[in-house]
Write a structure and sequence with these properties.
By secondary structure, the protein is an alpha/beta fold. It has 8 helices and 6 strands; from the N terminus they run ααααβαββαβαβαβ. Helices cover about 40% and strands about 20% of the residues. A 3-stranded mixed beta sheet has the order 1-2-3. Strands 4-5-6 form a 3-stranded parallel beta sheet, with no helix packed on it. Strand 1, helix 5 and strand 2 form a beta-alpha-beta unit. Helix 1 packs across helix 2. The longest helix has 14 residues.
């Protein structure tokens, strides 16, 4: 398939992969308007997440909400505004994106936000490195603990670096849950591990 071919050619470097499929979008006549229409129609919050965001909104003085993702900036900003939760976030860490010009062969260009030195993560991004950057730029003594809501295997690096007092909410049926519970690696994380399927459980 085209997807598997791209994954092989880009060696699972997600920035290269994203840039390649954005070239394919342009070649097949996909416009920003078409892309946004699909996002409007297809994008949905995970079950119960609206309840979680409403709770955070009502108790915003108690939380600083940080988004760590390898998805690119344009899509993240669009979706957060679509779901009316953009202003809930204190900080967003995602891959930078730049709009292509009309005569370019690409709709949007993805640019690495910042290089990292983590040997455990792929070249595109490391969520632990991004979180360390957040910690360096904020007074962490104001926080009693870190609550990390996650699902994918690429969340492992940050989960492993959190402290015993912190909590990691691992989504059932996804990559990180399988690694921790089905493959016997639960002890890789020193903090409390809580399984979830719905945002109402968080």
């Amino acid at each position: 398939s085209i997807i598997n071919k791209l994954l092989h050619e880009t060696d699972k470097n997600w920035i290269k992969y994203d840039n390649e499929y954005l070239k394919l979008f342009k070649q097949h006549g996909v416009t920003l308007e078409k892309m946004e229409k699909v996002l409007d129609e297809k994008a949905k919050l995970t079950e119960g997440m609206q309840n979680l965001f409403d709770f955070i909104k009502e108790n915003k003085v108690k939380f600083d909400l940080v988004l760590l993702t390898s998805t690119f900036e344009y899509v993240i900003h669009y979706l957060l505004k679509h779901f009316k939760i953009f202003d809930l976030f204190t900080e967003l860490y995602c891959e930078k994106s730049e709009m292509g010009k009309p005569d370019d062969d690409q709709l949007i260009y993805i640019v690495m936000r910042k290089k990292h030195n983590c040997k455990d993560c792929g070249p595109s991004s490391c969520k632990n490195s991004n979180f360390e950057e957040y910690c360096e730029n904020h007074d962490m003594s104001q926080y009693s603990k870190t609550l990390f809501v996650c699902d994918g295997k690429n969340d492992l690096c940050l989960a492993k670096h959190l402290k015993k007092n912190d909590a990691v909410f691992v989504r059932k049926g996804h990559g990180l849950h399988e690694y921790l519970f089905n493959k016997g690696n639960r002890n890789d994380i020193s903090g409390e591990v809580i399984e979830w399927s719905s945002g109402k459980e968080i």
